[in-house]
Amino acid sequence: MFNDLFAMMSKAGPDAWYSNAQQMALSVARGDDGDPNPAPAERQKLEELAPLIARHIEGIFAVQVEPRIECVTRTQLTQAALDQWKPLLEPGLAISSQALSNSEMPQIAALASTLGPLMIGFQMGSIAGHFSEQAWSLATLPLPRIDGVRRIAVNNVVRFVDEWSLDHQAVFTFALAQEMVASLVLSREGTSDALRALLVDTVRESAALQGGLIHRIQEMMQEGSPQELMANPEQMFEGMDAPEATPATDALNAAAGVLSAFIAFTALRITEMMFGPSNTLAEAYRRHCLSDAQGEAAASALFGIAPRSHFHEPSNDFVATIAEKHGIATFDALLRVDGLPLASELNDPEVWFERVTNSPLA
Predict the structure, then answer these.
(1) How high is the mean pLDDT of the chain?
(2) What percent of the chain has pLDDT over 70?
(3) Is 27 exposed, middle or buried (0-12, 13-18, 19+ CB in 10 A)?
(4) Which of 24-28, 108-112, 270-274 has the highest mean pLDDT?
(5) Is-contact 175 196, C-beta < 8 A?
(6) Residue 242 above 50 pLDDT?
(7) Is 350 helix (H, G, I), strand (E, B) or coil?
């Protein structure tokens, strides 16, 4: 079986990992129900709300917002996620490939060059497929975007509405506002460039762990055989400690935490402007994130982001404090390359406010 797999992978080309990811992800995303199309009536509700939400966002940021949206299935959201994530994962794959090319044992490089794309593709594909099981849109992950397209997995939103017995219009507004705000912020050149730099820093720091893993494989190959390694691949991780937080991961999680908190805060504010107090919706969404969002959490971890890290509550407090003292429009700084908060600024929002207010880019 492994000979057949290696033969297949050796002919698949440099993007073999991505082809495997697509096959796995789309298979998972279809699910047991075949991933049906959204009901036309639900699609129409979302399309009617989009221009109203766009005007509210324009009032906050003083920028023009295109109200166009795409109502998608789980499969379509999964494919969009893969397309967005591919360029963000490639630097890490390049580092791994470089480390393997420097291996003192040619058989290690040969094994990894064939097995690596298969395993990476399966891992990424499984995560992307499960991500779309519950996710409403790509807004659940504060990652740089390659385009400004807004996509809503309508059936996932409808299921949430039905499970919590909430008002359709209010929840649709909340979901749409999240995606439209996220699309505006995360597709901006300054913000996306700053996020990419943070992601690259975390990849470089993880290279030490990858190097340790390669060294472990080398030792096992010297002491045993490839067949034994394949029969029990878990043994290569035995005795290895999980990576601890580093300055790079802290910087990434602080920025991601504030972006997620700001997107949800702004979406709820817009919903309340249109439909009044939304305490029930806010609580239902909080519980949804805690209990139903395992796919989103796994996808976040793929990039070194911990959704429920120790930055979670400080990020929420940071956004609430700035909005109360200086107004939500202050967060237009997040559209700039220097607008993302530092980890040290989370517990002192005024330091961030002074920095971005007095920035030459302001």
Answers:
(1) 84
(2) 77
(3) middle
(4) 270-274
(5) no
(6) no
(7) helix
Rounded CA-CA distance 29/36 in Å is 11
Task: Collect all residues with Cβ–Cβ distance below 8 Å to 95 and sequence separation of at least 6.
Answer: 203, 204, 206, 207, 210
CA gap 300, 283 in Å, rounded: 22
* Distance, CA of 214 to CA of 222 (rounded, Å): 12
CA 358/CA 63 separation, integer angstroms: 21
- The count of other CB atoms within 10 Å of the CB of residue 49 is 19
The alpha-helical segments, DSSP class H, found in the chain are: 2-10, 16-30, 40-61, 74-101, 106-134, 154-164, 168-186, 189-223, 226-231, 247-275, 279-291, 294-302, 312-326, 349-357
Q: What is the DSSP letter of 303?
A: T
3-class DSSP state of 362: coil
Look-up of token digits 């030459």: 360
In the prediction, which pLDDT does 99 show?
53
Q: What is the pLDDT of residue 80?
A: 95
SS3 state of residue 243 = coil
Contact of 22 with 79, CB cutoff 8 Å: yes
- Both structure tokens of 73: 């299935």
Q: Is 361 exposed, middle or buried (0-12, 13-18, 19+ CB in 10 A)?
A: exposed
Return the number of other C-beta atoms located less than 10 Å from residue 324's C-beta.
10
Euclidean distance between CA atoms 125 and 17, whole angstroms = 9
Residue 249 to residues 3, 178, 211, Cα–Cα distance (Å):
39, 25, 18
What is the Cα–Cα distance from 48 to 143, expressed in whole angstroms? 27
Mean pLDDT within 289-314: 86
Q: Decide if pLDDT at 20 tops 60.
A: yes
Q: Characterize 261-295 residue by residue with b for buried, 16 or more Cβ atoms within 10 angstroms of its Cβ, and e for exposed.
A: bbbbbbbbbbbbebeeebeebbebbeeebeebbeb
Please give the full DSSP string across 93-140, using - where no structure is assigned: HHHHHHHHHT-S-HHHHHHHHHHHHHHHHHHHHHHHHHHHHH-SSGGG
